[in-house]
Design goal:
It contains 4 helices and no strands. It has helices spanning 9-14, 17-31, 37-53, 56-60. Helix 2 runs antiparallel to helix 3.
Length: 61
Amino acid sequence: MLHSMSTSVEAAIERSAAEVNEEIRALWRRSGGTLSTEQREEYQRLVMEWAAATPQSARAA
């Protein structure tokens, strides 16, 4: 299930890393493997959101 794009820090806290990861995967599928400038900005935002939602121990692995 995809959620609408979040634009605030509060939304990042509410979504799990798995939910954000699914949105990242959907972005890549929609782009066909090549991100436009706008899509790259969205990707960077999503990666930051994913990192914030991922437990510290999972990031260290």
